[in-house]
Structure prediction request, 128 residues.
Amino acid sequence: MLIRCKPIRFGYKIWALCSSDGYPHKLKLYRGKGPDQTKLPLGTRGVKDMMSAIESCSAVTKHEVYFDNFSTSYDLLKSLAEQNIKVTGTVRDNRAAGAAKLMKPNAVMKKSTRGEFDFRCDGEFLCK
Prediction:
């Protein structure tokens, strides 16, 4: 797989569902576009596929999931919240549909204090 803007451009993408102690519970090698692809973004499809392993094999009803900005989107947060799954992730500017009035990254970087951030809540989700 070609990954632009990386020091090593070609590599493998492996989806991993790991527990808090670091043990992997499900691994999936990304093999490119499949014949039965839905219109969902790749990150959303990957997370939902991983979460299907939790739903079928876990007796615990409350889960907390952490992932990076590749997977995080407002629609994914909403669908996981409906399944009582708490999510923490970094949201890219173009995927923060429910928090569109967040301060732009350039404006945050111009703030004088280090560690400055902005947050918004739409009544359901808190984005910061």
Observations:
- The mean pLDDT is 75.
- Residues 99-128 form one domain.
- The first strand starts at residue 14 and ends at 18.
